[in-house]
Amino acid sequence: MKKHIKYILIIIVLLLSIPLIAMQFTSDVQWNIMDVIVAGVLLFGFGMGISALINSVKDKKRLVLYLIAFLLVFILLWIELAVGIFNSPIAGS
Predict the structure, then answer these.
(1) Taking a C-beta distance cutoff of 8 angstroms, is the pair 63, 73 a contact?
(2) Which residues contact 67 (CB under 8 A, 6 or more apart)?
(3) How many domains does the structure of the chain reveal?
(4) What pLDDT is attached to residue 2?
(5) How far apart are CA 50 and CA 8, in angstroms?
(6) Which of 28, 35, 41, 71 shows the greatest Cβ crowding within 10 Å of its Cβ?
């Protein structure tokens, strides 16, 4: 499990470096420290959830179903935080 955490953290750092680099070249990307923290927590939770699912579910069909459902929830939450498609109180816009 510790090996998985190391890889998850490396991937998160690489993904979070994309907005950092983009902010150097364009004014269209404007992240503050809270954006980075929320994105990091969300990505870490997603990575750990995927790792836990892979380690605990043995049936391949059920695993694929759970992974698709987990990915869908992650994407909807990310979109809601970014642009607020559902107009919930957590919307980022």
Answers:
(1) no
(2) 50, 53
(3) 1
(4) 75
(5) 10
(6) 35
Does 91 fall in a domain? no
Q: 55 with 1: CB under 8 angstroms?
A: yes
> In this structure, what token pair is assigned to residue 88?
């919930």
Exposure class string for 55-69: b at 16+ Cβ within 10 A, else e: eeeeeeeeeeebeee
Q: Domain range holding 61?
A: 2-83
In a domain, 92, yes or no: no
Task: In whole angstroms, give the CA distance from residue 51 to residue 42.
Answer: 14
Flag whether 93 is in a domain: no
